[in-house]
């Protein structure tokens, strides 16, 4: 049994017209993780999700869900997966209740489990009072919640949400975040795509940043945020120095004999560097703040 909820290897997708939406991406998501796929519009996020959920045919590469290959064992892989896309994906003329029971029936669940899960998710997502309404009569926020309930009704191990809170009001966003955290704590692996850093930061343990069809960074959320909070300062000194001794967590990088850089973060503030220079009789000619490359990347990703 694999301890990976999702394993993608060398995945590529070229759409007609030679549009390379995914260029050989690798992605591994551990069981139990809460994972963000962050990237700007057009990065390839929906294409990746479309391939995982067998709505888009891949050009090359492999995808395994809980160790099950989506090509060789399609229906078994599909049972492990729930997907919440961006477009309404239920029959709007069915009642809310029917949408869930039909979906559960499609997975071959017993009538008892169908009723149990349908009742549970309708109540949990605040749709119980609307159970006899046709889907088309629901508000946008309720439609979104019904899509989440539909994706979960067969208790999948892996839940993937494509931009779950795009265009939803703040209240729904918060309640959806709480709900997702709860089901993740109860063991469901969750992957979401977003172009809001804030959303990834709030929810996710690990993150991959995707841009122009390539994964440009994979990291834990915590270490990525630490990096975002640090800045690099470059000091031009009045005299040449062979090296500057690294001390007290200050790690000086030599650029040339009179130029050194140092990372400033929560532990190392600028004062500490200036005090160190003064105590060691190192004189500064000028100082510049070299913008963090990652921060630049984020600015370009999130604008
Ligand atoms: P994201 O979800 O990150 O916004 P997409 O996966 O939707 O990115 O798109 C990735 C790239 O593939 C974009 O350049 C987009 O225009 C292109 N693309 C997406 N779907 C199609 C399609 N059906 N036909 C042709 N090109 C497409």
The total domain count is 2
Query: What is the C-alpha radius of gyration, as a whole number of Å?
Result: 24 Å
The distinct ligands, each listed once, are: adenosine-5'-diphosphate
Mean pLDDT: 90
Structural category is alpha/beta
| CATH fourth-tier homologous superfamily of the largest domain | P-loop containing nucleotide triphosphate hydrolases
Q: What is the end-to-end distance?
A: 41 Å
What is the percentage of strand-forming residues? 25-35%
Poorly predicted regions: none
For the largest beta-sheet, the strand count, sense and barrel status come to: 6 strands, mixed
Helix percentage range = 25-40%
| Total strand segments | 14
CATH topology assignment of the largest domain: Rossmann fold
Order of helices and strands: EEEHEEHEHHHEHEHEEHEEEHEH
Shape: elongated
Number of helices: 10
Please give the order of strands in the largest beta sheet.
6-7-8-3-9-10
Architecture of the largest domain in CATH?
3-Layer(aba) Sandwich
CATH top level class name of the largest domain: Alpha Beta
